[in-house]
Amino acid sequence: MAGKRIVVPALQEGPIAPDLESVKTTAAADGAGLKLSGAKAYVPAAGLADGFIVNARGPSGMVLCYVPKDAPGASMSG
Predict the structure, then answer these.
(1) CA-CA distance, 58 to 48, in Å (whole number)?
(2) Cα(56)–Cα(11) distance, rounded to whole angstroms?
(3) pLDDT tens for each residue of 29-68
(4) C-alpha distances in angstroms, 33 versus 8, 10, 11, 28, 38?
(5) How far, in Å, are 4, 30, 67 from residue 34 at the CA level?
């Protein structure tokens, strides 16, 4: 798949379906970008992904961020 990336959603924080009202992951201004803090409980096809779309609470409300799988500070377990 030259020139293509697999990107999957990383939205779920608890044991049940994503609940946007209870998102605890935060996105804070950090230089020219955002610094994410938090964890996701379930990410479908995480092992196949080149990156993730992560939801977080930002300075002005909910934001969606693209995070490459090899971004500094990003990790997967389980």
Answers:
(1) 27
(2) 9
(3) 999 889 999 999 889 899 999 999 999 999 899 999 999 9
(4) 21, 19, 20, 8, 16
(5) 24, 5, 11
